[in-house]
Amino acid sequence: MDDKDRPDGIVLTEAQKKSRRQRSIAIALALGVLVLLFFAVTIVKGPAVLNRPL
Description:
This is CoxF protein. By secondary structure, the protein is mostly helical. It has a domain at 19-47. The longest helix has 32 residues, at 14-45. The model has no long low-confidence stretch (mean pLDDT 87). Helix content is 59%, strand content 0%. It has one helix and no strands.
């Protein structure tokens, strides 16, 4: 099968591309906020994070 015989696959419309980009940005921002939250909690707790019974 040549490359010429293959279909192009799924072609997204401009609205779908815009929607996908917005969704990707929202997921990235949510992940960034979660990382910052975990970092802030770790900094606030300080070395007490390591003082726990084994």
